[in-house]
Every structure is written in structure tokens, then in C-alpha cells.
């Protein structure tokens, strides 16, 4: 079983963290590569994070309203195929 | 070489219609289309950003429509006389740096007010533009596939008293307009070209179409 870690991307100079505003999928849902699965908020911006890999959203590690640092793992996706 | 982009003046337009227009532009830019700058004014509306708190709407008898939107920031008010600018820009042209992009948006407001002899500034740890202690420009953006939408609003000659119904951006802050600062009436129509010119200079843009109405 291949696993993909969905991480908080680098969002810009001086931005060290973001808050998870909302998840658009729940654990167990099938996600496509380009699906925006989670929305982060930082520096007056909401940022949609695409899945980055097609598969099943296996585990959400950072819940809504919680803070995550850049490169923190937001969720684990079980890669399809 | 300057980045070619499109400017569209939507005039006075309902928030929901302008939002629809933004989303159309967003899809086009994500698909590789030209960056697009939408300029408009809205009839009275309160918008509440992601993680915004409804408790920041202070007037419990509020009759202004409230719309929850997919941008950063808290509650803000749009009303006629306030210029609202929605740059639908691919941030790959701006180093994929949200802070850099927001800084340039802030600089648009600073340079614009500077053209009227007004010294405006940022505040530490706050996003937005102030003249002395009063806020005059507010920013809230959304980003999908590294394309930005939503944007910046600047108070030109709107009714500032309406802001007393809310805590703008979740802050206890006074608001001010350009007309109030200059003690003369300035219309939004009269300043659009100035704003466009500043955008083109700061974002290194060259327009390919102007004033294309919906």
C-alpha cells in the first residue's frame, strides 16, 4: 500500500504557519489529483490545497481551526493504482 | 517583458454577480488564460471571510445582506462609493509568495493615496492600509491552484457611518474615506484610471483590453 503525505506547502517568505479553515472531503473519501481537499488561512488569504495524489483520504491529521506549520502533514492519502 | 492582462470595469454590480464573474475569470486563468483585473462597486453588503466571526457584526437589527465568502479575513462592508478591485492573477508570476502579493496590493493603496498628497501606511502585524489610525483600505484574498481572486477595497466616497455596524476585519478600528480626508467629493469613476495605472506599474502589466463591460 503506497502512502502520500499531504503537507502544508511553502506559502511565501515569512509565513511560518496557517490555520485549517475547512476540509472539503472526509476520511474514506476518494480524491482526484487536482481536487482541492483542504483550505488553509494565513495572512488574509485562504489557500486551497490540492490532493497532490489520487487515492483515498485515509487519515486527517490536522483538524479544522487547528494551526499547522509549513511542511506539517495535513493528511495521509492511500494512493490508488 | 510586461505581462499582458485584461481589465474589466463591472460598474455598480451585486456582490453575487461579481463573485460569479470572478469565478469565471478564475477558471480561465487556471486554464492558462490572461490575468484579469475586475473593478467594481457593490450595493450595501457585508461579507464574512473564512474563520470570520458573526459576532463581529455588532448591529443585531442589521438589515444589510451578509454573505459568507471563500477569502481570508473577517467581516467587511462594501457599499457604493467604495472601489473594489479583484485581481485574478496567477501568482506564479509573483514568485508564488502570498506575502509578496499582499504587500504589492497594499502598495497600490499607498501609492494611490500618495497621488492625492495623503500619507498612508501599513501597521505592524495587521494587513490593510491606514491614514493615521483610521483604516482606508482592506484586503482579503482567496487562492486556488496559485491563482488569486478576491482582492482589495478602498473607501473613496462611501458612507463611512455604515461601518459602525461591524468590527471591520474583526478590529476595533475607525474607518475613513478619501473624500472625507480631502473634504471634497471624489467619485469612484474619476479615480479608476489612476488605480489601473498604479496596478500596471507595480505588477509590471500591460493591458490588452479595457472597460469591457459584462
Number of domains of chain B: 1
Head-to-tail CA distance between termini of chain B: 29 Å
Q: Specify the number of helices of chain B.
A: 4
> Would you give the CATH topology of chain A?
OB fold (Dihydrolipoamide Acetyltransferase, E2P)
CATH C-level name of chain B: Alpha Beta
Going by helix content, strand content and strand pairing, the class of chain B is alpha/beta
What's the story with the biggest beta sheet of chain B? 9 strands, mixed
Stretches with pLDDT under 50, minimum 5 residues of chain A:
none
Order of helical and strand elements of chain A: EEEEEEEE
**General form of chain B:** globular
Q: Say how many strands of chain A there are.
A: 8
Main beta sheet of chain A: strand number and arrangement? 4 strands, antiparallel
How would you describe this structure to a colleague?
- The complex is a heterodimer of chains A (81) and B (214).
- In chain A, 0% of the residues lie in helices and 53% in strands.
- Chain A is an all-beta fold.
- Chain A has one domain: RNA polymerase II/Efflux pump adaptor protein, barrel-sandwich hybrid domain (OB fold (Dihydrolipoamide Acetyltransferase, E2P)), CATH 2.40.50.
- Chain A is elongated.
- The N and C termini of chain A lie close together (9 Å).
- The model of chain A has no long low-confidence stretch (mean pLDDT 96).
- Chain B is α/β, with parallel strands linked by helices and 214 residues long.
- Chain B is built from four helices and twelve strands, in the order βαβββββαβββββααβ.
- In chain B, helix 2 (98-114) packs across helix 4.
- The longest helix of chain B is centred in the middle third of the chain and has 17 residues, at 98-114.
- The A-B interface holds A 10-15, 19, 21-22, 34, 36, 39, 41-48, 50, 65 and B 49-51, 70-73, 95-102, 127, 139-145, 148.
- Strand 5 of chain A pairs parallel with strand 9 (134-144) of chain B, so a sheet runs across the interface.
Amino acid at each position: 500500500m503506497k502512502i502520500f503525505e499531504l503537507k502544508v506547502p511553502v506559502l511565501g517568505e515569512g509565513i511560518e504557519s496557517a490555520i485549517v479553515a475547512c476540509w472539503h472531503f472526509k476520511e474514506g473519501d476518494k480524491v482526484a489529483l487536482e481536487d482541492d481537499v483542504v483550505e488553509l488561512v494565513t495572512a488574509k488569504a485562504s489557500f486551497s490545497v490540492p490532493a497532490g495524489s489520487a487515492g483515498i483520504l485515509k487519515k486527517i491529521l490536522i483538524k479544522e481551526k487547528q494551526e499547522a506549520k509549513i511542511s506539517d502533514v495535513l493528511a495521509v492519502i492511500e494512493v490508488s493504482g | 517583458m510586461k505581462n499582458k492582462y485584461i481589465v474589466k470595469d463591472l460598474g455598480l454590480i451585486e456582490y453575487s454577480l461579481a463573485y460569479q464573474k470572478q469565478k469565471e475569470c478564475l477558471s480561465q486563468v487556471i486554464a492558462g488564460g490572461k490575468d484579469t483585473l475586475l473593478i467594481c462597486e457593490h450595493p450595501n453588503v457585508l461579507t464574512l471571510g473564512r474563520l470570520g466571526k458573526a459576532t463581529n457584526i455588532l448591529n443585531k437589527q442589521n438589515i444589510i445582506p451578509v454573505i459568507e465568502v471563500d477569502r481570508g479575513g473577517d467581516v467587511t462592508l462594501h457599499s457604493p462609493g467604495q472601489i473594489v478591485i479583484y485581481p485574478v492573477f496567477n501568482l506564479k508570476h509573483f514568485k508564488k509568495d502570498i506575502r509578496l502579493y499582499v504587500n504589492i496590493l497594499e502598495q497600490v493603496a499607498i501609492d494611490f493615496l500618495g497621488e492625492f498628497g495623503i500619507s498612508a501606511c501599513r501597521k505592524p502585524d495587521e494587513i490593510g492600509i491606514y491614514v493615521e489610525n483610521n483604516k482606508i483600505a482592506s484586503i482579503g484574498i482567496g487562492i486556488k491552484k496559485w491563482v488569486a481572486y478576491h482582492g482589495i477595497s478602498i473607501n473613496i466616497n462611501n458612507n463611512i457611518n455604515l461601518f459602525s455596524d461591524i468590527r471591520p476585519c474583526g478590529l476595533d478600528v475607525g474607518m475613513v474615506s478619501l473624500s472625507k480626508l480631502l473634504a471634497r467629493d471624489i467619485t469612484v469613476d474619476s479615480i479608476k484610471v489612476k488605480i489601473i495605472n498604479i496596478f500596471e506599474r507595480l505588477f509590471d502589466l500591460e493591458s490588452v483590453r479595457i472597460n469591457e463591460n459584462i
